[in-house]
Amino acid sequence: MRPSGRQLSEMRPISIETDVTRHAEGSCLIRVGGTHVLCTASLEERVPPFLKNSGLGWVTAEYGMLPRATHTRMRREAKNGQSGRTQEIQRLIGRSLRAGLDRVALGERQITIDCDVIQADGGTRCAAITGGWVALRLAVNKLMKVGDVITDPLPDPVAAVSCGLYAGQAVLDLDYPEDSEAGVDGNFVMTGSGRLIEIQMSAEGATFSRSQMTELLDLAEDGVKTLVAAQKDATA
């Protein structure tokens, strides 16, 4: 039934390659099927002005798509000319990663997560969150190794997966052909222990029931477990 031939509850193949750039404190290339995202973590020994002398750390994110990440070339986005979609996604990534962060333990420093979509085939924001956590984890590991951070500020992984109603069926991890025709589309951000961080769901031409939402949430929980296992393997 699915264009890819996958089962309703089947994820696309997942791979996470770490330390793919020389200079970033943490980096990975995450591949979820045909969606490939380069994630880097950059450490600064400062925080935004509103957090100065607070003792609290900060994680923020930026997101972008390379011009030929999709079927046709798109223009590069200057920072002051970003689309609403880009701004919304990078705020989502930042919120999601901060939700799993002990900002006191991190101390008064900032880590910026850059997520650059090399190739898009649906679920880019979910892959960016999942890969962004890996890059963040690697950067924090370096801080802990040299003793700059004593208590682990990342007690639980953070990952995200898409689910939706395609041809009337609840499916896990939508690729582009499914995402573009889904009656309902949702993105689920969760911790490794199953705590919810954010759910984005909307009808795309069809309404959905409470029971269907529960079914999608159940699928998302299983998908996040698979992603968390891949994160742990990558950062072990």
Automatic annotation (TrEMBL):
One of its GO terms (molecular function) is 3'-5'-RNA exonuclease activity. One of its GO terms (biological process) is tRNA processing. Gene3D superfamilies: GHMP Kinase, N-terminal domain. It is an enzyme of class 2 (transferase). Its EC number is 2.7.7.56. Residues 10-139, 156-222 form the Exoribonuclease phosphorolytic domain. SUPFAM superfamilies: Ribonuclease PH domain 2-like (SSF55666), Ribosomal protein S5 domain 2-like (SSF54211). Keywords: Hydrolase, Nucleotidyltransferase, RNA-binding, rRNA processing, Transferase, tRNA processing, tRNA-binding. It catalyses: tRNA(n+1) + phosphate = tRNA(n) + a ribonucleoside 5'-diphosphate. Phosphate binds at residues 85, 123-125. Phosphorolytic 3'-5' exoribonuclease that plays an important role in tRNA 3'-end maturation. Removes nucleotide residues following the 3'-CCA terminus of tRNAs; can also add nucleotides to the ends of RNA molecules by using nucleoside diphosphates as substrates, but this may not be physiologically important. Probably plays a role in initiation of 16S rRNA degradation (leading to ribosome degradation) during starvation. HAMAP family: RNase_PH (MF_00564). Homohexameric ring arranged as a trimer of dimers. Belongs to the RNase PH family. NCBIfam families: RNasePH. This is Ribonuclease PH. The gene is rph.
